What we know:
Strand content: under 5%
Radius of gyration: 20 Å
Order of helices and strands: HHEEHHHHHHHH
Mean pLDDT: 81
Oligomer: single chain
Amino acid sequence: MDTLAEIQAAWEPSSDPLVLRRFIGDPVIGWKVAWSDRAVSFYTSIWLFAAIRWPWPLCPCSRPRLLSLLFLLPMAVDGFPHLISDLSGIERGFRANNLWLVALTGNALPPWFYAGDALGSFDFWMRLLTGLLAGWGIADLVVHSVRKGGSTQPESQTLGYLLRE
């Protein structure tokens, strides 16, 4: 992934997101590709966890389906602060440098872990883990519903049905 400074050096020295959107890349720096760590881990893990979960017998206990939906909570807890932080501008918000995490950990980890969203950074790991958890919850919810015969009943399309089962 290219940093803002690398893109500015290759194209135009702007921090305006509307201006930066027009940059599609070049032969030296490479070409822009749409990528989201969280989306990739989320959508991939749904299929992966569904394939893993399918052969398991259904739990005889009446586990609430709300538990499966709670697996979405970590994604919201991590994603909402990113949304608020991004309102300050690209690489300007509190999640760009994660100074709160530096203070929390006593700066015990290398600087590259705290800043940005490159491979191995805190933001990378949070996006990966929250996407995996959300995918696990959705896969469990869907597999349970389908195996209980919910997919053949019209009512099964409602959230209320999924939560009761």
